UniProtKB/TrEMBL annotation:
Organism field: Eragrostis curvula (weeping love grass)
Acidic residues: compositionally biased ranges: 30-39
PANTHER family reported in the protein's UniProt record: OS02G0467300 PROTEIN (PTHR35163), OS05G0134500 PROTEIN (PTHR35163:SF12)
Region described as Disordered: 1-48
Official protein name in the record: Zinc finger GRF-type domain-containing protein
Length: 145
């Protein structure tokens, strides 16, 4: 008689997910040099830049930090206007390009982040549908009482 719960050590559930970055255009984070870099704000690098003589068509540029793709974390100066479509395409990088290995790693991380976000949306939708079905069923049970 086998008394122990056999744990076969089958880790099929936790298999290492190998990751390949295809770099296809479906990546929501475009890294094209023609697009404005996705941006974020940082406490130590924000506001209108007064330390350089840089200007865009709208005056002194705004300090920004790239938040997406291979340039993640690089500081740059960009148009002072808000992201409302009126921004001009002015971009002046402050930090030098990251080493290629870092750029590739950032792209992988953003790709994975994108996958997780998609999975989370999918789970939210599933949960919403399941709750709706539950409510529906409870209402039908009440009626049939
Ligand atoms: Zn501008």
């Amino acid at each position: 008689m086998s008394s122990s719960t056999t744990h076969t050590g089958d880790d099929s559930d936790k298999s290492v997910h190998t990751f390949t970055y295809s770099g296809d255009s479906s990546d929501y984070l475009s890294d094209s040099d023609n697009d404005l870099p996705p941006e974020t704000e940082e406490r130590l690098w924000r506001g209108i830049d007064r330390s350089t003589d840089e200007r865009c068509a709208h005056g002194r540029p705004r300090r920004k930090v790239c938040w997406g793709g291979r340039n993640t974390g690089r500081r740059f100066l960009g148009c002072r206007l808000e992201e409302d479509g009126n921004q001009c395409s002015y971009v002046k990088w402050i930090d030098a390009e990251w080493p290629e290995r870092v750029q590739v790693s950032f792209k992988k991380l953003w790709h994975q982040s994108n996958q997780f976000m998609r999975a989370r949306r999918h789970c939210s939708n599933e949960l919403r549908d399941a709750l709706a079905a539950k409510v529906n069923m409870e209402q039908r049970l009440k009626k049939s009482e």
